[in-house]
Amino acid sequence: MSRIALALVLAVGTVSVARAAKPNVLVILADDLGYSDLGCYGGEIETPHVDRLAKNGARLTQLYNSARCCPSRASLMTGLYPSQAGIGDFTTNKPNPNRGPGYLGRLNEQCVTLAEALKPAGYGCYYVGKWHLHPETGPIERGFDEFYGYTRGHSHDQYDADYYVRLPEGREKEIDPPADEFYATDVFNDYAIEFLKQGRRSGKSWLLFLGHSSPHFPVQAPAERADAYDAVYQRGWDVLRQERFERMRSLGLVDGERWKLTDRSIVPVDRKDVANGSPGEPNPAWDDVPKDRQRDLARRMAVFAAMVTAVDDGVGRIVDQLERTGDLDNTLIVFLSDNGACYEWGPFGFDGVSRRGETILHTGDELRNIGQRGTHHSYGSGWANLGNTPLRLYKHFTHEGGISTPCIVHWPDGIGRPDRWFRSPAHVMDVMPTVLEATGASYPQSLGGRRRTPLEGRSLLPHLRGEKVTDRSIGFDHQSAHALRKGDWKLVWSKRMPHEIAWELYNLAEDRCETHDLAEAHPERVKSMAAEWERWATRVGVTWDAPAKTSAADRSAPPTPEIAKRRLTISAHVATSSRTGVIVAQGGREHGYALHLLDGRPAFDVRVNGEVTRIVGKRRVLTEFVVEARLTRDKVSLSIDGTVVADGESPGLIPRQPKDGLNVGRDDLTAAGDYAPPNRLVGSVSKVQVSTRPSGSD
Questions:
Q1: 628 & 682 share domain
Q2: What is the pTM of this model?
């Protein structure tokens, strides 16, 4: 054999050995990125680096999430439905015991994280960014070796350097820019590169989970980056939405005959000021928005787009690093978003750190301050409707706009370079089994002496390799929004609509955008699928409240009464086996009252100027009873079936009319009582009466 031939054999052998190593795994999760925001999904935002991954990988058209950030993250991290992992709707420090273990508010001990599965297989495990699976079950506690980011809260100021931490405790920050140069998305990208280098130095294959907080509100980006998009968004959401749809068609993502560009989605029903004056109405036409408001809105969206571009820049830097080290082809990369675009809270968005922050109109020189240090803005439902083009509704909802995720899988050594759309329904819970198949790691049946919940997801690799996959049913639930996907059919229950709510039915093969409700035409299919949804919900630990089983007309809620400076009598007929949950509540964190159950005992909370006065009955109530609470200037009292069970000194009458309205069987907004929202009663509440008298009357 010649020296040249021998050299070629050795070179081929070297490549073969390198590619026989276990693949690296990189998961990049964007936060509140809409279905069509990426360039490769039709968006006008510049994302060349993600687009490159898409061109050399697989693009999924029907990858579903769980409608909101932390439930989706729990599912993605564990391969289970959110309720099976312990985060059925949201993280909390005060879980409602009546809702069961699915609503622990943090990862439970029966689930297994990606890191806990890969570490025994010899992987180094790294996490950067937003955790949002509860700090008590933080990344180090759940298997990751190194972490940089934040574990508390769902969002934070991008410029607040002191908020972001390096774990395990005692680790020095390898990257620590001066406070006036700090921008979290950039630093997350820097740490991703740092951990890639650490992983390579370790000699191990690695898992890196890059969980961005961008482009979640507060929308923030350096002003000069947003400047590049100002003119784009001055054109408005109607024109851009039509253009996105046309690009989606030219890309082959949408079939123009089976996908119809929907009408502007409605603004969800909420307090009128929160919904920017249009609860239950469609988002306005851009041309009907006043010019000064257009400029304010265009700048908010320009900042959002700059955040997406910052994420994309990081993807480019990471890919360059992997190419330099020869690791790109043998790294399984999954890029996706955690839910649909976020409507909060109306077409004009909001300002301030609170969900109830007022919406401010910025003009003149103030416009360029949007998205800068110390600001807190959202971009609103009009732009979110653009983000989810052409689908209906948004994050929080189980219509396609809320649960459809852009997803790109890039792994040349494992799936080649298919450069095409993959159209079978899938779910973020499928990422875990995909990673397990790719790496050869085993899913532990027990860990730390505890049995683990078997995987619900299934590997995406057979589908991505062109193999035929069998249909399955996929269930959804998020805070009273439900759905079941079964083959081509989808059953969906909405919420916060201006009309009567009932099960809707769609054939997504013919109508992906859910424009033709077929429920009346197929009542038996609705009945069958609704029964299957309930069986699924029971199996995976979902609990749902009575309104989910009734129409809007069956709900016995009186109009919201005026209660400021008035004596109150609140009564209701309750039928429940719950030990905890709200019966009637009105108000929020400033003023209001709540009649609720606390460990099976009746409780009455009165909130005045943020402080709560509580009385509690000494005995547990029966499963069916009539409860009555009274508030006067001097006294509070509580009765069950006509017998007083608790009384006490009053904090005084409620001084001002609360902003949050009357809720029956739930308190989903800011808490009127001393509990964590959302707080709901499983059962029925009927014959609700709220009687008021002026403070000086008998």
A1: yes
A2: 0.84
